[in-house]
Structures are given as structure tokens and as C-alpha cells.
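Dear colleagues,

For the upcoming journal club I promised to circulate an example of a predicted protein-ligand complex. I picked one with NAP because it came up in last month's discussion. The inputs are reproduced below in full, followed by the predicted structure.
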Amino acid sequence: MQIAISLYGFGNVGREFVRLLNRKMSYLKSRHGIEPRVISVVTRRGGIRAESGIDWPVLVSLANAGTLCEQEGFVGGAPDDLDRWLPPEDSGQVRVLVDATWSDLSTGEPGLSRLREAARRGCHLVTLNKAPLVADFDGMVQVAREAGVRLKFSGATAAGLPTIDTVRVSLAGAEVRSIEGVLNSTTNYILTAMSDNALSFEEALRRSRALGLAESDPERDVSGMDTAGKILVLANAAMGARKRLSDVKVTGISEVTSRQIAYWAVQGRTLRLIGRAVRTADDVSIEVKPTPVPYRDFLAQVTGDGKGVRFTTDIFGELTIVGGAGGPSAAAGSALKDLVNLARAVDGDQGLIP
Ligand SMILES: NC(=O)c1ccc[n+]([C@@H]2O[C@H](COP(=O)([O-])OP(=O)(O)OC[C@H]3O[C@@H](n4cnc5c(N)ncnc54)[C@H](OP(=O)(O)O)[C@@H]3O)[C@@H](O)[C@H]2O)c1
């Protein structure tokens, strides 16, 4: 199966995705019968494009060092000009837009309109950008359904940690009663460093920046909004919650003090930033807040830049998943996983893709 990819975003994740695809090329072909080609790479100012696929050596060397706009063949222009950037409709290939850009969490834009339009044009969607799903999950699902395309978003819901696929496949048929998780690496690193190394919040944040975990503007992480976006998407996707970001009560970690950490340690608990969605009688309540977790709890054992999630279900009881790699390489890996599963779904009952 030939897959034509339009890659939006060529930052940490987009570049890593290119390197990973290149590295996995022969494995994808021999194991799954999949042949991906990157038809276009698009950033804010424009991009590069080649109908038959951009040469892999060119793409990889660009991913390793180059600047897209200095590349021969770079075309300036709006990323929303989909006629220019998407693979042609009559190509006979499976067409996929992979979104590794940023958008506004409350409006979902500019990614939301772009993804909707790409779906209407018959492109399958793999998004690492959570904002369009946070802003309008039901709308995105509906557009994809009406257009008959797949919408995959592992990279938007904790990437290396299997969350959404676990519910869809491994917990199929079960009612998810609650989801709790440590879903943000940066804040978990900071809380662990405050607890294990007796650092202040500011010093722990400084170290997380030095390690490249925290963005230069870490506000989305420390305010709890990144966790809020993830738990919201999970609740909407796995529990049918139909909630908006404004329905999520969010408390970040910037007010957490060393004193609080020491107080809870004496009580046999450690603070974790937990995103929690709980089914009530006729609703789902969603909250994000620093939570004292007993040391024996699996989520207390999520340390450093780790992540973890716990599902409570009617059939299978409690299931906790802890671990998984983090950072851009895990994010790229989750997009690759989505691509393989998307190909399987498109393949349908033929079962040709193992
Ligand atoms: N980093 C991680 O570990 C990780 C993990 C999971 C998910 N994600 C998600 O992956 C996405 C990308 O993260 P990143 O770390 O790769 O970010 P990044 O290094 O800042 O790169 C972002 C890329 O997106 C492009 N871009 C931004 N806004 C755009 C727009 N409106 N239209 C077209 N292109 C646009 C930028 O273009 P210019 O080059 O022109 O600025 C840049 O190439 C984010 O949504 C993030 O939440 C990241």
C-alpha cells in the first residue's frame, strides 16, 4: 500500500518523524507492506513539495540540519493553501495529512479548519497537535466520519503511553468509568525533582528547561492546560463525555511549595499532577490538580519525565499503564503507529496488512 503524506510542521517532532520513517522504511515494507512517501513538508512560511515523493536523502539531511526555506524548491505561501500542499486526489494512493504544528487550545485554530478541510478532501488525518481535538472533538469526529476518512491522534494523548488504542482495542466493549493519569512529562519531572532532590519549583523548572523537557515558554505545561487538553480528549473519546475545555477545572503546579511536598511525604504520599475524568450518575466530571498519591499507588511510581494512566472499567476492573518513552522521538513513534493502524483500517477485511 502506497501512502502519500503531507507533513505539516518541521520542528522537533516533524523532523524526528522524517528520520523515523526513513529508518523504518524497509521494515514497514517487509512487515506491513506499506510504502510511505512524503509529498510535501509545510511550515508557517511555505514548504517543499514533490508529486512523486521528496527524495529521502534530501529530506533526511534537511531533518538533521537544514532550514526548509533555504532548500531548493522551497515555495513560499500559506499553509492553508491545501490545493498546493495535499497529495493529489486522483493519485490512487492512501493520502494522509500528518499534523505536527501548534494551534490555540481554545479555538483549535489554525489547525482545526485545515484538518476539517483536508478530511473533506478525502485525506486521512494523523494529528500530534491536540488543540483541534480539544476545541471541537465531536466536530472533528463527525467531519472525518462524513468524509469516510480515519482520524488518528495517539500523539495528542500522551504519545509513547498507549491510551486511546488501549481503550479502543484492548478494552472494547467495556464501559470506562474513570480515567486518571500523569499525562505531562515536564510537570512530573518538576514535582519529582522537588520531592526527591528538595528543589524549589523555580530550580526544578530551570533544570527541566536545561534538559530540554520544558519549552522556553512552559506555561501550557505548568498551568495544567496541557494535561487538561489530554484528559479532555481522552474523556471525550473513551467515555463519550462531550465536554469542552471550559468544563475542565484546572489547577497547575506553579503554586506547589517544598513545604507541601514535605507535609505529604510525612503522610506517605507524593504529589502528582493528575488529570482525572470520572463518570457520575448522568455526567462526566473532569479535573486537573496536584494530588497527593499514596506511595504504594502505581501512579506514585511514575517518576521523572515518565507518564502513567489508569482506566477503571465495568468488565476488566482497573488497568494501569506506566512508562513509555517521551519527547519528540516517542511522539514521532506514535504517528508512525497511527499510520500503520490507519493502513490496516483502510485495508479493512482483506487482512492484507499484518
Ligand atoms: N515535542 C514533543 O515531545 C511532543 C510530544 C507530543 C506531541 N507534540 C505536539 O507536536 C506538535 C509539534 O511539536 P514540536 O515540539 O515539533 O514543535 P516545534 O519544534 O515548535 O515545531 C513546530 C513546527 O510547526 C510549524 N507550525 C507552527 N504553526 C504552524 C502553522 N500555523 N501552520 C503551519 N506550520 C506551523 C512550525 O513552523 P515554522 O518552522 O515556520 O515555525 C514548526 O515547523 C505540537 O502540537 C505538540 O503539542 C509534541
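Two points we might discuss: The first strand starts at residue 2 and ends at 8. The chain has two domains: 2-160+329-350, 172-324.

See you all on Thursday,
B. R.
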